[in-house]
Amino acid sequence: MHNRSSLTLVASLCLAAAHPTPLHAAEAWWNRAWTQRQALTLDTGAEAAALAESPGGACVLVRLSDANFQFAAARDNGSDLRFVAADGKTVLPHQIEGYDNILNQAFIWVEVPEVKAAAKQTIHVYYGNADTAMPAGPAATDAHDAETVLVYHFCGRGVAPADATANANNAETVGLSSDDSLIGSGLKLSGSTPITIPNSATLAWQPDQPLTLSTWIKPAALQANAVIASRGDDNGSFRLLLDQGIPVVEISTGGGTVRSQPAAPVVAGAWTHLAVVADGKTLQLFLNGTPYASVSGSLPALATPLSLGGPASAGTGTSNFSGELDEWCISRVARPGAWIKLAAMNQGGSDAAARTLTLGAVEGDAAKEQSKFMEHLSLFKDIAGNMMFDGWIAVGICAVMIVIGWSVAIRKFIYLNSIDKGTKAFLRQWKTLSTDLTALNPEDNSAASALAGRGEPSEQALLELSPLYHIYHIGTEEIRHRLDRDNNRIQGLSGRSIQAIRASLDAGLVHESHRLSDGLIYLTISIAGGPYVGLLGTVVGVMITFAIIARSGEVNVNSIAPGIASALLATVVGLVVAIPALFIYSYLNGRIKNSLGLMQVFIDEFVAKMAEFYRPAQEPEASTGKSL
After folding, report:
1. Is the pTM of this model over 0.85?
2. Over the chain, what is the mean pLDDT?
3. What domains are there in the chain, each with its CATH number?
4. Cys-Cys link to 220, which of 45, 111, 323, 475 (CB 3.0-4.6 A)?
């Protein structure tokens, strides 16, 4: 039995190596004519919309900007946008309220057939289709379900508000447009002329009519009994009011007028979501997605025009609403509280609203902004998420090696560049000195002053950076200590003195070599130790993975691959430490060898010149006859 399990395990590992399985298998591509896509995640969990119950189907708002969407990859008017459900097949209806590829912003409404409670669900937005014969998608009016009888986005300028549903419940009155509204453009009401919506078969209210009214308001000031919406005749009426900032719903029938009880007021100059839900028994008022107030009763049967922003009734102390409206929606069904809350959360501008609907990274063969390298790099996040504590220890040690090694490398680069500049400056001076036989004459206060007096202070500081200058200075100091001054006569240097001076120069060469090589040991440690530390982390990770598999008894690729991948990450990090360190060390070592070779040549040249110009006194000079 154990032999069979072992064979199965080995076979699984071989298959995993031959056909690596990603940690998160990519979903099937809907249509290859669309070259790019992004995941659109609707989150109703506690960190986002926090829906305890399912709202059913809903039309959600998708905000696009240059921060989350590639406008340059889509068509100028967004006509190639397609929203595909999680099954990878169903194309969801959508409606574009506004699409501006110059300002890089868009507002799109997408119908989600079933929104889950306290969960995340993903759909995909596809774009990037350059085909002139691109097939058409679902009708834009299908983005709103059959129970939605009127939707005003207020996106038209200089025209009466138009119904975005298929019911064509367009207004009769032209209103003022507000460009900087909550969602694109909105309706600005000055308190003078209300917006009139004529009655239709879909807008007529029957006795005990279920209804949901949803909108956003932004009062310019807090008025007394400002009429946001009204409808009525001699037999009854309905009004939605804002009384000194307190939302109020009021219904009148033959039995009298009833109003909801007042609660906390809203703030002037700020957007607030209001919703009224009538179920035939009660009218429930919602404020920003939460229950606010209620009144017992039902809607009266009405077939009269509906007014927005008024009209004020004479003698009742009411006034026309002054402020802004956005997203006016009427449904002939009582929407659940979760539907109201989702609308308020999704359409608002809070942080929770931003978390409710999020766009993922770009995917696709033609993703211009995301290279294949970045796609592979993104997998490391998933791999690192499965890494065990032992692997993180190895990664931490490798990280320390990287920090130390690169710090040494940077300092060494700066140091070698500075001594190269100093050496070039010194060699320019040395060429002059090597042809001037009096340059090393001890009659000067210091032999080294032959260089010190030939340049500016900045030039002298540059010379002192050169190892050649340090060796030259050692030589001149040795000459100065050994030469005797007697009536301006130079006795010269004996062969033994020259050998001693050369030994001092060689010692200086050794000191300069140590200074040049200082710190390189950390790079050699990274080169030698990085792969071994990473390998240790991999071996430990593989051992633990196999131990977990043996304990659980699950022998399949899906249980093995994540652990093996995360264990191998430690080796990858070790190689990332070692490979750059190897190249850097080779480069720095080559430059150091060049510097040491140049110093050796200089010492030979210095000793040769010294032996020639400071011969003992008994050796005659062929050219001048002077004794040195």
Report:
1. no
2. 82
3. 36-144+356-363 (no CATH), 148-332 (2.60.120.200), 421-518 (no CATH)
4. 323
